[in-house]
Automatic annotation (TrEMBL):
The keyword Transferase does not apply. The chain crosses the membrane at residues 97-114. This is DUF4974 domain-containing protein. InterPro entries: FecR, FecR_C, Ferrdict_sens_TM. Coiled coil: none annotated. Residues 334-402 form the Protein FecR C-terminal domain. The keyword Zinc-finger does not apply. Keywords: Membrane, Transmembrane, Transmembrane helix. The lineage of its organism: Bacteria, Pseudomonadati, Bacteroidota, Sphingobacteriia, Sphingobacteriales. Residues 196-291 form the FecR protein domain.
Length: 404
């Protein structure tokens, strides 16, 4: 049943002066409506935008801190999801909580945009055109192909847990957690060979390099790396997107080369996005420090900052980073903050392995914020996105057509 709330409470929520009970009432109110909240009509455009931003930030904080807020979980299966323990030592956002939060955030974001279009007197365009029933499209999850130095390829999705073929004097293992881990006997005796790990669209994969550095590759990405690190440098090459947790070694810098840019670290956590079909590369730092170099330009990153380099330029732009947006993919989330439909659909194409086609003069200058569970069907994501003013979708096999 749809609940109502006074505009005064909403404004106190915006000002940060409402009580805990009123704050909970605001969240419950948003959870209760299915389309447009009547009370939002009374807010000014500036207040609506501020309200979206405030609730968006609050929910991102809550899903990162499940012990502070969130639905209580009672079943045994849900207790596993509550801990968020993947068995790899990395904490992940609990599935049930971020799924609820994702729905709430999209209700906020899309509700605000629908209000704007209605206030402008524009008809709401919603609903995927009715066509013959087509198979649902789901991402392929954890798959990758390992290309050895001799050209041999191994499908890591099909490979069994345990030891993979020896390579020189290095041992390659597939762990219980599904990672690939390298164990050289010793740097002094090891033969250095270069492998390439490639993730197809719709997949991500983790590996542990010979020095203990952990790398998670996003969809449609690849990493070229040695079976062991000898000499005074640790060098790898990235295309696409990867999250790095670099093993500390102050005497041997770790260098990531991507699209003409180099990131150099001694031991730190950071994310790099360097897809060839993007107009820029982006490095986001979570912990430690990173030295970014492009031609003669050099810049240092500190935690919470990002470095953006436009293609064809050597100018490095440093700014505050939205860490949740940059790294949400590791936690199984699409996190969008003030992104246009073209940028969003690039991510959709990579993750769901679909072709995106634009028909007519599709608007790409609209921006919105939201969170979505990447394990869900693409049809569910489209059902949210289609509610944006001016966007309609149809699915033809593995092709998504965007129309006015």
């Amino acid at each position: 049943m749809k609940k109502f709330i006074s505009i005064e409470i909403i404004r106190r929520y915006l000002a940060g002066s409402c009580s805990q009970e009123e704050s909970e009432a605001v969240s419950e109110w948003f959870n209760s409506y299915g389309s447009v909240a009547d009370e939002l009509v009374e807010l000014t455009p500036e207040e609506r935008e501020a309200f979206e931003k405030r609730l968006f930030d609050q929910i991102l904080h809550d899903i990162k801190n499940p012990s502070i807020a969130g639905p209580r979980i009672t079943s045994a299966d849900d207790a596993y999801n509550e801990t968020g323990d993947t068995g790899t030592g990395h904490r992940r956002i609990p599935y049930k909580w971020f799924a609820v939060a994702a729905m709430l955030v999209f209700a906020v974001s899309l509700g605000l945009y629908i209000n704007r279009s209605q206030n402008a007197g524009k008809p709401n365009q919603a609903g995927i055109p009715k066509t013959a029933k087509q198979p649902d499209l789901l991402p392929a999850s954890n798959r990758a192909v390992l290309t050895l130095a001799n050209g041999e390829t191994i499908d890591l999705g099909d490979a069994k847990m345990g030891q993979l073929p020896h390579q020189g004097k290095a041992t390659i293992l597939k762990t219980r957690e599904g990672q690939i881990a390298y164990h050289p006997k010793s740097e002094r005796d090891a033969d250095v060979e270069y492998n390439v790990m490639t993730t197809p669209k719709g997949s991500k994969f983790e590996l542990v390099l010979a020095d203990g550095t952990k790398v998670c590759l996003n969809a449609a990405s690849s990493l070229r790396y040695p079976t062991t690190f000898t000499g005074g440098q640790r060098n790898v090459e990235l295309t696409g997107e990867g999250y790095f947790e670099v093993a500390k070694n102050k005497d041997k810098p770790f260098n990531v080369a991507f699209n003409g840019v180099t990131a150099q670290v001694l031991g730190t956590h950071f994310n790099i996005s360097a897809y060839h079909d993007d107009s820029f590369v982006n490095t986001t730092l979570l912990e430690g420090s990173v030295r970014i170099k492009k031609d003669r330009s050099v810049a240092m990153l500190t935690p919470g900052k990002q470095a953006v380099v436009e293609n064809g330029s050597d100018h490095i732009v440093i700014s505050d980073a939205n860490v949740e947006e940059a790294t949400g993919w590791r936690d199984g989330l699409f996190v969008f903050e003030h992104q246009n439909i073209a940028s969003i659909m690039k991510k959709v194409s990579r993750w769901y392995d679909v072709e995106i086609v634009y028909k007519g003069s599709t608007k790409t200058d609209q921006y919105f914020s939201g969170v979505f569970d990447r394990s869900k069907k693409v049809e569910e994501l489209l059902s949210y996105l289609e509610k944006l003013d001016g966007a309609r979708f149809s699915k033809e096999g593995r092709r998504i057509v965007i129309m006015n």
